[in-house]
Amino acid sequence: MLTAQAIKMPEFDKSITDYQNLLEQNNFIYVETEDPNFDWIEFSKLVTGGELILQYGQPIFYVRYEPELMKFSDARGERRLLPHTEASDYQTPPNYLVLWCKKPSDCGGGMTTLAYVEGFLKTLTEEEKKKLMETRHHFGATRGVHANRTKGAIHPILSFEGKKPVFRFSCNYIKYGDYSPDPENLKPFTPEPFLGEIADRFLAYYEENHMAIRMNQYSLLLWDNKCIAHSRTTYSDPTRELQRIFLRNS
């Protein structure tokens, strides 16, 4: 496990261009402030050049503890999330995800983790990559707490924009047919064999190669949703609260 300390950027005397260059270089940025009124949404739009889009019908998603989801592998539960890229069931997933930490967890858990997709692709054979690029898969859960949250989408798991990979993947969905399963009450489900194997290998890669970010209060974490997968560790503090937005380039 790695940490993001080396590229944390708390200094606000830097120009937007500096942050843009940092994002281009690393595909994510982590910014700490001490300002509860910092306009993190406008800052994110300026850095990415993206526009705010709705996520499941709302502009801001509140990532906070909800008792009815406590036992699920869900952003609003306390269980570990499996790695994924966001909104694989969207026709066009967001280019960027942004988290704003309003209140960190006091228990020490709830760390956001990131891993580059490119490293995982290097572990695949050319035949495996070709299959991920040529086969179109349906994404859209019909079971669980998020069943039919969208109309779903059909797209290849892997594509490229120039040399940059675009990965559309959810370990929960691939392995369990459910975006937010209950790990202790998994419903019978048989994943497609090839994708099931890819998911298991991706999980193993992620465990060895992810970066962990413990977000401080009034900090911002922004990353490229196309080439970075993300997850979150378990936590038990019900006062933890983050806000999340989706950004898409025109």
Automatic annotation (TrEMBL):
Coiled coil: none annotated. GO terms for molecular function: oxidoreductase activity. Residues 81-245 form the TauD/TfdA-like domain. It comes from the Bacteria. Keywords: Oxidoreductase. Signal peptide: none annotated. This is TauD/TfdA-like domain-containing protein. It comes from Moorena producens 3L. The lineage of its organism: Bacteria, Bacillati, Cyanobacteriota, Cyanophyceae, Coleofasciculales.
